[in-house]
Amino acid sequence: MAMGGISVWQLLIVVLIVVLLFGTKKLRGMGSDLGSAVKGFKKAMSDDDKESEKNQQDADFKQESLADKKEQTDAFTPKDQEKTKDNDRV
Fold first, then answer.
1. HSE (CB half, 13 Å, CA atoms) of 54?
2. Model pTM?
3. First CA to last CA across the chain, in angstroms?
4. CB-based contacts of 18: which residues, under 8 Å, 6+ apart?
């Protein structure tokens, strides 16, 4: 037996005390709750990974900054702006 380690007998005594304190039904319920929490966490992580992969694959458009958009709006000539105003009046 190694010094500072937990032997099999010590582990069995701890398990026995825990079972006596909480009861088997409560331990079973806690175990199933813990299992479902881990399962839900794994599902959320895999859904998040799938979502990020989908976003990377489906991005077939060019990402533009606000500065690019401003340049596009500044590219209108005054003549184009007048046409737009005329169409708004109709």
1. 6
2. 0.40
3. 94
4. 27
